[in-house]
Design goal:
With 888 residues, the chain is mainly beta. The chain has 9 helices and 56 strands. It binds beta-D-galactopyranose (GAL).
Length: 888
């Protein structure tokens, strides 16, 4: 067993194709098992008190016989955290980062036709790379790619437009690989396409390539007057690159790109297309309510839409490369991106991780900065400097068009430090150092790479540190290293040489529930909670960041205070971009203030139930109006879908907001009610949340509760044609809410059919050939690897030196066959045959012609030893077809 287990194709246990997984759960990817587990106070607080552990995934599939000769590749976009992948019983890859994709060329291992291919993935999610929730499992997409033998490598086309001397050029670089057995001649044609697919400009290159090597070719496409990629109008173009062999297209890649220039200036910050843009960014991790890290693609658009509503124009992918789909969404939505490498290490494996990020991401127009690390203890040392110098050099070999940065939380003023090895200096906090650094190094561009870390709980307006573990949402709570939203922005807004900010964070995330621990399981840093429901910080930034043409006026808190608050002062905070605001309570004017753009406005209002109104004025004219009212008790529920239709592709997903309304239809912001959902039709509930970091309700299922008036339920379409999803929500005696969503027929993403596992016996040993009938039950010493040879059914043998041979294998039947017995099917067996199982004769084939036989075997829990005695005619015999163990 040990000898065999060290051989290609011979892995055992769950890595073996023969392993019985018939009782395993069937699930769809992407998948995060951590979010399915219960909160557990003994688990790591940083990982949100969720279990991680080990897990296995297995998948069987067939490849058409016509695929033989193609290049076959498996692609995993993200697996948390370390994993090992076996294909057909052979280890094909080990991955050491939960944020980098990996592509596995399985061409040499693949089987075709009736043969079944098996993928087994062992995930070790006990490994940690972060101090935040990292999820567990195959949480991004996986792909099976079939290409012609002469093909483009994955991420193999670099087509990022550059501008020099007023001319645009796309220096297309395409890398070709040849997996065929012969030298190939090829041509490449690259073309820039307009929106309707018409060719704007094209170019060609030719070459030849030896088997099993890669070659890159360059084609310059000159472009005049393209539509620019801007924040307001992020125009994207497609570069179509076609590979030809003998005049026939063998591979085509469409690469999305955008025309824009970027510059960081030491005196005046960031310029997009030569236009000054103050970076108004947020940092974000990648988990969302209900789904953990297995975030459906459509939710990226939802999250970016919420950030844009807040006035955000940039995202820092903290502290790791995001999914492909996230970057596509940033390209589409006009969001600037700081893309960040996960591991600060320059050893070969980690260098590979950095190179992968650059190669995959360098076509995205949204990306403006490559960040090589976040807050590394070596940042102020010569070692740190030397490492970043090397990493920076690696970046430049892949892309010279974007600057390198590192998010430094210190060490900026030491004699040798990392800031000397980057193009743009990144400041994490240390806001007191902006001025001094700029004074000492006036030629070094700089940006905040992280700031704020303000703490607030959505809908809470009184700190309760010891019992409820909540923090008032008045933008006053912050950790020692952080700042309030208002002060942090002020420190950046008035310094032209600081390119902008990246607030910690846009959304709350699991883990880091500072300053609390259990039962608090997720953070309170977000401008929005984990669902994307706004907190006070969201409105502060709206007031500061939205264009003045979009009036902002918002009051906190709610106006549902208990009776004993009557007459007592309630602190009212107004967020507005008007010039002055006035407040009215129950029809009476109670205050007026000039708007403070940075600090916002605070009023002390003696509480009276009723209607509190705010009016915003500019140049004496009313420009905005906001009302908050004391509501009655909840009497009904309301469901507000983010969209009313979904694509019927089994992937599209939307969040639905759940609220409670009073008799007058007003949202009750203080409602905390249990809700039960029911879904019928072409959809499933894939997760629920409410932003309460102390709530431990399961995020899967159909029961959740409102927290301070809100909950979110995430619906995903089933892969089906067109139809409807009906979602209802009920709570006690409240009026039930029902919505119907349309599921529209849509193109199904092609997927490889699932093959139900069948025990295929394809690993045999064959004895020497004998002239006389041998004893079928003869013993062969366990250490004898050489007298008998390894063989595989599928072709007949030349019986040289005798007409008798023994074939032997062993197998453990699947659970059901152990219980009930089963049958062994031998396809296309030639020769007279005796079938011996555990030294008992269980069947025979009397004639010598080619034919199939099916033989029953009895129940039993043990591993079975199977021997075939074959007597060949004319020296040709054996098993030309497959051998399978099936149910009775
Ligand atoms: C920063 C760190 C973040 C997060 C934050 C919390 O120092 O970069 O990942 O931990 O602190 O305030």
């Amino acid at each position: 067993m040990t000898y065999n287990s060290a051989k290609a194709g011979k892995s055992w246990g769950a890595a073996s194709p023969e392993y019985d997984d018939t009782k395993w759960r069937l699930l769809n990817l992407p998948h995060d098992w951590s979010v399915e587990s219960a909160y557990d106070s003994t688990e790591n607080v940083a990982q949100g008190y969720r279990k991680r552990g080990f897990g296995w995934y297995r998948r069987n599939f067939k490849l058409n016989s016509s695929d033989k000769g193609k290049h076959i590749e498996l692609q995993f976009d993200g697996v948390a955290t370390n994993c090992t992948v076996w294909v057909n019983g052979t280890i094909m890859h080990r991955n050491f980062c939960g944020y980098t994709s990996f592509y596995i060329d399985i061409t040499a291992m693949a089987k075709y036709g009736e043969d079944i291919n098996n993928i087994a993935v062992r995930v070790d999610a006990n490994q940690q790379e972060g101090w935040w929730y990292e999820g567990a499992g195959i949480y991004r997409h996986t792909w099976l790619v079939k290409q012609s033998p002469v093909h483009f490598i994955t991420d193999g086309v670099f087509a990022h437009p550059v501008k020099s001397n007023n001319n645009w050029v796309i220096p297309v670089e395409a890398t070709v690989e040849n997996s065929s057995k012969v030298k190939a001649h090829f041509a490449i044609e690259s073309a820039l396409l307009d929106e309707s697919g018409g060719v704007i400009v094209s170019g060609k290159s030719k070459g030849s390539i030896k088997p099993l090597v890669q070659r890159a070719r360059k084609i310059n496409l000159s472009v005049t007057n393209p539509q620019l990629w801007t924040l307001e109008n992020p125009t994207l173009y497609k570069v179509r690159t076609i590979l030809f062999q003998d005049g026939k297209a063998t591979d085509t890649l469409l690469t999305s790109c955008g025309f824009r220039t970027i510059h960081f200036r030491a005196d005046s910050g960031f310029f997009l297309n030569d236009k000054w843009v103050k970076i108004k960014g947020t940092c974000n991790h990648q988990d969302h309510a209900g789904v953990g890290n297995a975030v459906p693609d459509a939710l990226w658009d939802f999250r970016l839409k919420k950030l844009k509503e807040m006035g955000v124009n940039a995202n820092r992918c903290s502290h790791n490369p995001p999914s492909n789909e996230f970057l596509d969404a940033c390209d589409r939505n006009g969001i600037l991106v700081m893309d960040e490498n996960r591991n600060f290490n320059i050893s070969p494996e980690y260098q590979r991780q950095l190179e992968w990020m650059l190669r995959r991401d360098r076509n995205h127009p949204s990306i403006i900065l490559w960040s090589v690390f976040n807050e590394e203890p070596m940042q102020g040392t010569e070692n740190g400097y030397e490492m970043v110098r090397r990493m920076s050099e690696i970046v430049k070999t892949f892309d010279t068009s974007r600057p390198v940065t590192a998010a430094q939380s210190g060490g900026l003023f030491t004699p040798i430090n990392v800031s000397q090895a980057v193009d743009v200096v990144g400041f994490n906090y240390q806001q007191g150092g902006y001025e001094e650094y700029h004074k000492q190094f006036p030629n070094k561009p700089m940006t905040s790479s992280e700031d704020v870390s303000g703490l607030m709980t959505r809908g809470e307006y009184k700190d309760d540190i010891t019992h409820k573990q909540v923090l008032a949402a008045y933008d006053e709570n912050k950790p020692r290293w952080g700042n309030t939203h208002r002060a942090a922005w002020k420190a950046i807004a008035d310094k032209p040489y600081v390119a902008g900010c990246f607030i910690w964070t846009g959304f709350d995330y699991r883990g880091e529930p500072q300053p609390f621990e259990w039962p608090s399981a997720s953070s309170s840093f977000g401008c929005m909670d984990v669902c994307g429901f706004p907190k006070t910080a969201f409105y502060i930034h709206q007031a500061q960041w939205l264009p003045i043409t979009k009036p902002v006026l918002q009051l906190v808190p709610h106006w549902n205070w208990p009776k004993d608050s009557i007459g007592k002062n309630i602190r009212v905070m107004a967020m507005s971009n008007a010039e002055t605001i006035k407040l009215k309570l129950n029809g009476k004017w109670i205050g007026e203030q000039k708007v403070d753009y940075y600090e916002m406005n605070t009023f002390q209002v003696p509480y009276q139930p009723g209607k509190l109104e705010a009016f915003g004025y500019k140049g004496g004219k009313e420009v905005s109006h906001f009302v908050v009212e004391t509501t009655g008790e909840p009497v009904s529920l309301e469901l507000i879908p983010d969209r009313t239709s979904l694509a019927g592709d089994g992937l599209d997903a939307i969040p639905v907001t759940v609220r409670a309304l009073d008799a007058k239809g007003r949202s009750v912001e203080t409602a905390n009610l249990p809700i039960e959902f029911d879904i019928t039709g072409l959809g499933n509930i894939i997760g629920m949340g409410n932003g309460n970091h102390n709530n431990h309700d399961p995020e899967k299922g159909n029961k959740y509760s409102l927290y301070n008036g809100l909950a979110q339920v995430i619906i995903q379409s089933k892969a089906a044609s067109s139809g409807q999803i009906v979602l209802t929500a009920k709570s006690g005696n409240l009026k039930i809410a029902t919505i119907a969503l349309t599921v529209k027929e849509s193109t199904q993403i092609p997927s490889v059919g699932i093959v139900s596992p069948s025990l295929v016996l394809d690993k045999w040993k064959i004895s020497p050939f004998y002239a006389t009938k041998p004893d079928p039950n003869m013993e062969v010493a366990s250490y004898d690897m050489n007298t008998w040879a390894a063989t595989k059914p599928g072709s007949l043998q030349q019986f040289a030196g005798g007409s008798f041979a023994l074939y032997r294998t062993s197998f453990k039947p699947f659970a059901e066959q152990c219980e009930k017995g089963g049958v062994i099917l031998f396809k296309e067996i030639t020769g007279k045959v005796e079938v011996w199982l555990d030294k008992q004769l269980i069947g025979t084939k009397e004639n010598k012609e080619n034919g199939d036989i099916i033989i029953k075997f009895p129940a039993g829990q043990n591993t079975r030893n199977l021997t075939l005695l074959i007597e060949a005619e004319n020296n040709r015999g054996g098993i030309a077809g497959v051998v399978k163990v099936n149910a009775l």
